[in-house]
Amino acid sequence: MNIKPLNDKIIVKPEQRFKSDVLDLSKVKGAFTTGIVMALGDEAQSMGLKMGDKVHFGTVANTAKDEYLKFDPIKIGEDQCLRMSWQDVCFVEELT
Question: Domain 9-93 carries which CATH code?
């Protein structure tokens, strides 16, 4: 299946749960904070994101008024992925 997100949207395959010293992720069930970019829209690409980038992103808070960053779980083939905006990416991990 070939997926092409529109505009600023990206598809990320969650890689692992990342323990944060700043955020209490124990309150967010099933939260992931790192993943690999699997597909991206033109706007996300123009901002420098590439397929295969390892990205770190935030999580959804328990209440709407405290919401930090948004993502939606989606299933693509057999893979559980997340749909989000490139603006929800905190940083791209670059290997040196």
Answer: 2.30.33.40
